[in-house]
Amino acid sequence: MSLKSKHIRLWVIIFLVIATIASAQSDAKPKNIILLIGDGMGVAHVTAAKLVYGSLNLERFKIMGMHITGSANDYVTDSAAAGTALATGFTTNNDVVGLDREGKPLKNIMEYAKDAGKRTGIAVTSILPHATPAAFSSHHKARYEYDTITAKQVEFGLDIMIGGGLNNYYPKSFRGSRRRDERHLLNELRDKMSVVTSYKALSQLKRVRNLAAILDGGHLPHATKRDYTLGDLTDKAIELLNVKDQGFVLMVEGSQIDLAAHDNDMDRVLAETLDFDKAVKSALDFAEKDGNTLVVVTSDHETGGLTLPMGSMENGKIVKPVFSSDNHTAAMVPTFAFGPGAEKFGGMYDITHVGKTLIELVKNNEQPCN
Ligand SMILES: [Zn+2]
Asked: What is the pLDDT of residues 35-62, one digit of tens each?
């Protein structure tokens, strides 16, 4: 072989190696996924927070998308159907969590994550059996049957659960209990994992494998009435989950943006959106350092039909915001993405695209996607 043809062969080999590495990288799956859901957070909610607070961590993203949120049986989705779409990649009827329209269980991202050897967790500011967290940790036909959903979540076995809802765990005969049976789910939970019921106890924990931190009887206090933020809860969840080579999947929900918008309470919408933005900061700070974590921020639907017809750019003031509804609307909501796979979330699509794409990025290659 001549020296020239040897040279050509060497260059061909170098080119092939580079091409293989490049294509492997573009298909690379992130080790960790953090999905943050601002419940009810539409574009106007983000706009208002940006105008009032000046800068948001949401501005750190370079890739954005928009999605249509309607459910299988309604122009306007509820949080159960939308949560199911985000968790499983499939639409279902309003009121249903984790089942398809025929009542068949839909495999959710946490189940795919477990199959892939990943750790799993949720951190929310609502009660744990509320629609969004329920969609990521149970399968049930009726979102408000909290007794059953709470029991199903205990059996489901996430590694880390942080949120409210202690009264859904105590037997009916206990003061404050919201249960209609005598199951003591807190004791059942204690057989499986560490349990704490205050933020102080949670903040002092180190290296627990499985944990339920149930920090209030009902939903967590409003953002302005807590001495911790959703960012603090997200930091803790990441710390406890990030102990395994296979990685983790964490779902964080700013649950009360929606509740505040249902009440048409602009001050609370702003405070809850800011609290959620602190969780976005926690996730992005970790992902930037880690280098192998996908962060996706999205919403399940718009709440309140919020518009912002008057205000002042100079003073960061919103004057007379208008809520056209005390319920959800069909307005599109934004998605923001950072990290390996983020480019798949650019563009305009249906809500199921978010769940489907996340599952593709989580699952073992040999597993078919439902
Ligand atoms: Zn919702």
From this structure: 999 999 999 999 999 999 999 999 999 9
Residue 133 Cα, ligand 1 centroid: separation in angstroms?
10
- Does the annotation count 79 as an active-site position? yes
Domains of the chain: 29-362 (3.40.720.10)
If you measure from the C-alpha of residue 78 to the centroid of ligand 1, how many angstroms do you get, rounded to a whole number?
6
Q: How remote is the CA of residue 91 from the centroid of ligand 1, in Å?
A: 14
Instruction: Say how far apart CA 359 and CA 348 lie, in whole Å.
Output: 19
CB of 70 within 8 A of CB of 76?
yes
How far away, in angstroms, is 257 Cα from ligand 1 center?
9
Task: Name the active-site residue from 2, 26, 71, 79.
Answer: 79
Q: How many CB atoms lie within 10 A of CB 95?
A: 19
| pLDDT bracket for residue 19 (50, 70, 90) | low
CA of 352 to the centre of ligand 1 (A): 15
Question: Which pTM value belongs to this model?
Answer: 0.92
Rounded to an integer, the average pLDDT of 218-239 is: 98
Q: What is the pLDDT confidence band of residue 1, given thresholds at 50, 70 and 90?
A: low
